[in-house]
Amino acid sequence: MYPPAKMAEGEWKLAKKAQSYRHPAEFYTNPENSIGYLARVVFRSFSRLLERRTLAYDVSAGQWRFLRQLWREDGITQRELSERVGMREPTTVVALKGLEKAGFITRRKTDDDRRKTFIFLTPHAKKLELTLAPMNAEIHEIATRGMTDEEVETLQSLMRRVIDNLADETQKLAVLSDVKA
Amino acid sequence: MYPPAKMAEGEWKLAKKAQSYRHPAEFYTNPENSIGYLARVVFRSFSRLLERRTLAYDVSAGQWRFLRQLWREDGITQRELSERVGMREPTTVVALKGLEKAGFITRRKTDDDRRKTFIFLTPHAKKLELTLAPMNAEIHEIATRGMTDEEVETLQSLMRRVIDNLADETQKLAVLSDVKA
DNA sequence: CCGATATACTTAGAATACTAAGTTACGGGA
DNA sequence: TCCCGTAACTTAGTATTCTAAGTATATCGG
């Protein structure tokens, strides 16, 4: 991380620009500098506050995530739902079991393709949107207190860019392991 | 969410500014607009990529979080460790059991205060910092690819502001429930 | 100096998520 | 037509994290 003795200042700067990191590894030893850590704390705090409100309607934070997607698109398959919500299928299976038991969803099969299961909201769950959706908006309001609209948009768009960057990398690794297989 | 027919445009704007939300509740029905959702995806993607590297040294993502803190401050108590890492104490208990079994830490008591347990890294875990810390820097590099240093700092500081806002609210609720109790 | 309160940690039990390895159903060649 | 690869979902087992409630130790007010 330090310039080799013989190298001229200019050369080192060039090399540094070309191949070294934005910050030395020690920098990230402080969690406050780590995007991963910050994202975890944002996610947990947000989630906990939201759940505090939704639990009054017997909806857990995990269930809320599935309901939100179904409010947008009712009657999609389990696989589609998993993708949209960003969870793996086994997670979805377990979550849907809970949602079905609680009377929020029903599952239906077609003869078209007997492998697929379509998920539908019950009337009760549909009605809940009116009550629960504003709770999310409220937490958002709290979370972004004191920020300008522009700052909020900047935050969202920077997070999306991070997500895209990480997804690209994950994609690369998936392709590599396909080649190996 | 729409102006009542009889209200003059100016009046509505004032009312809106005074008491309504930045966006209508429907806006957040799209997960891509939700800071909570975006933070979850950032956190999971980041964590998964990092774990892929650290697992080669038998360190899981969860364990890594504790090690990072101990690299900064060796010999602190369990409670202090929990706070710094941002986890509840039972989580720490379980994690430390794993870390102890894996030979990464030792626990020690004092006669000073026999309730406290101090956590120390083993020489092996100390050495791992040289290998593992750069992995975090590397994921950071990937995550922030194509961003200027300024953009990265903006992202970090906006996330910290969200965390502070949510913590304030949680604090408020805690005080309220203290009053009740 | 004793009892109430607070602190530090632990245990128990549950929710949420994951990976790996099934099962069942579809669909395109040989 | 039948076999093989793929797709959709399920099961099993594990890891991580939480809340609520418990134990042991320390401290402080009367």
What's the layout of helices and strands?
Two copies of one chain form a homodimer.
Chain A: H1 9-19, H2 35-54, H3 61-72, E1 76-77, H4 78-85, H5 89-101, E2 105-109, E3 117-121, H6 123-143, H7 149-180
Antiparallel strand pairs in A: 1-3, 2-3
Helix pairs in contact in A: 2-6, 4-5
The first copy, chain A, binds a DNA duplex (30 and 30 nucleotides) through residues 44, 48, 60-62, 77-79, 87-95, 98, 113-117.
Key words describing this protein structure:
DNA-binding, 7% strand, transcription regulation (chains A, B), homodimer, 7 helices, mainly alpha, 181 residues, DNA-binding transcriptional regulator, MarR family (chains A, B), globular, Arc Repressor Mutant, subunit A, DNA-binding transcription factor activity (chains A, B), 3-stranded antiparallel beta sheet, disordered N terminus
Quick summary of this structure?
Chains A, B: GO terms for molecular function: DNA binding; DNA-binding transcription factor activity. The structure is a homodimer of 181-residue chains. By secondary structure, chain A is mostly helical.
